Amino acid sequence: MTTLREPTLLRQRPFRLLYVGQTSSVIGDAIVPIALAFAVLDLTGSASVLGIVLAARIVPTVVLLLMGGVIADRVGRRSLMLVCDVTRFCSQLLLGTLLLTGHASITTMIVLQLVAGTAAAFFQPAATGLLAEVVAPGDLQRANGMMGLSENTAWTLGPAIGGLLVSFVSPGAALMADGLTYGISGVALYLLRLPAKPRGADGPAPSMILELREGWQEFRSRTWLWTLVAWCGGFHLLVLPAWQVFGPSVSRAELGGAPAWAVITTCAGLGSILGGIIALRMRPRYILRASFIPLGLYGLQLLALAVAAPVPLIGAAALVSNIGLSMFNVFMLTAMQQNVPLAAMSRVSSYEWLGSIGLLPVGQALIGPAALVTSPTTMLIAGAVWMFCTPVLLYAVRSARDLRAVSESVPDAPDAWAAAVG
Questions:
Q1: Does residue 375 contact residue 47 with C-beta atoms inside 8 Å?
Q2: What is the Cα gyration radius of the chain?
Q3: What pTM did the predictor assign?
């Protein structure tokens, strides 16, 4: 039976600060795609160039993720995340200023997105491990559900804020607002206090190669994890780039521009909120399989966009599509945090992130040229077919469909968590 224990987590100061900081930074993350899209399209009018700029944000993340996971497991995760937020705060404010003053170019946009992507490479593995430090294992689904719900709300508000700023001010103003959200996240992390990690035995630290190998062993030993990550790789190669690149370009050419795209992405965010509420309240015995069929419905929004349906119809499809994706994200993250040792969490998370998003810059860079050979409609329909086949593909993985959830808090919670929440 579901109980209203969420406020108990929010009364714990470490979780509350992490919650506020992550929500703020995700609002900024949600502003970036629409701000960058229309900044690039205003400068060049090219969907292919937009794909390259978006890829520039992802490439350093992919290249440096494994190093980020090792460093996050070695040093304080909070401190590392704080440095990353300061870096992104500066890069986005600078890009916004350059756009507002008319001094921005595609080169400067690419360089500053490379900087932001580098910070993300170190931030994401640390964030996965930090949540597991401050929350008891049995409460991780609830915590991830709350974080996912707030982040999905942010992904709803972010595009709306970004669309308003782009439409009534400029893309530069939207990117400056993005930078400020990273500043808020940095303040929250600065105020977060965790007990110092106990010192290990004297002697040289293990080599980075050894630690990467240990993390790889933890990752590859869990068939359900690496097979789901392989599916995520296909999603980021074929599906997400089609939506990110052709969504703004179709909206600009046929649907009314930035306001139409803001409406569609806001509807997608509302679907993510609904999915987050469902994931927060559900207590499935088998934590992954509950999201398989809803996840397949993500193809609806691609199909609606492919035929340039009316904006309300695309928005409705986007709402339905994102319910299952939100559920899947919460359940997969919870499963990983419940089944991977905390000491290796950031390294395993880095392999998970690398496998999931490693092909995203490839997809972003190639989706435009591929559409020139075929058509945007063909690429969107191909992505829809991939999603409609997803429930069958994932259910075929026995260890994924049969993975049980940890449903109760356990008495032997991690020492760091016990000390942090007292």
A1: no
A2: 21
A3: 0.67
49 close to 40: Cβ distance less than 8 angstroms: yes
What residues contact residue 361 under an 8 Å CB cut-off, 6+ apart?
54, 55, 56, 58, 59, 62
Distance CA 79, CA 77 (A): 6
Residue corresponding to tokens 């500053």: 112
DSSP-assigned letter for residue 404 = B
Report the mean per-residue pLDDT for the chain.
Answer: 80
| CA dist., res. 414 & res. 132, Å (int) | 9
Integer Cα distance of 237 and 233 in angstroms:
6
pLDDT by residue (tens digit) across 15-67?
Answer: 888 888 888 888 887 888 778 888 888 877 776 787 788 778 878 877 887 78
- CB contact burial 327-340 (16+ within 10 A = b; e otherwise): bbbbbbbbbbbbbb
DSSP assignment string, 78-128: HHHHHHHHHHHHHHHHHHHHHHHTT---HHHHHHHHHHHHHHHHHHHHHHH
Helix/strand/coil percent split, the chain, to 5:
80, 0, 15
All residues at 6 or more sequence positions from 210 whose CB lies less than 8 Å from its CB, including other chains: none
**The pLDDT value given to residue 172:** 86
Q: Is the dihedral of CA 227, 233, 234, 239 positive or negative?
A: positive
Measured CA to CA, the distance from residue 241 to residue 18 in angstroms comes to 30
Instruction: Show the tokens assigned to 400.
Output: 């994924």
Q: What is the pLDDT of residues 346-386, one digit of tens each?
A: 788 778 877 887 787 788 778 888 888 888 888 899 999 99
343, 73 in Cβ contact below 8 A? Answer: yes
Q: Give bridge partners of residue 286 from the DSSP assignment.
A: 404
Q: Quote the CA–CA distance of 267 and 48 in Å, as a whole number.
A: 26
Q: How many CA atoms lie within 13 A of 267 on its CB side?
A: 17
AA identity, residue 136: A
Question: With 0-12 CB in 10 A as exposed, 13-18 as middle and 19+ as buried, what is 1?
Answer: exposed
Query: Which of 69, 158, 171, 188 has its CA nearest to residue 120?
Result: 69
Is pLDDT above 90 for 300?
A: yes
CB 243 within 8 A of CB 37: no
User: Cβ distance 357 to 234 under 8 Å?
Assistant: no
Euclidean distance between CA atoms 14 and 247, whole angstroms: 38
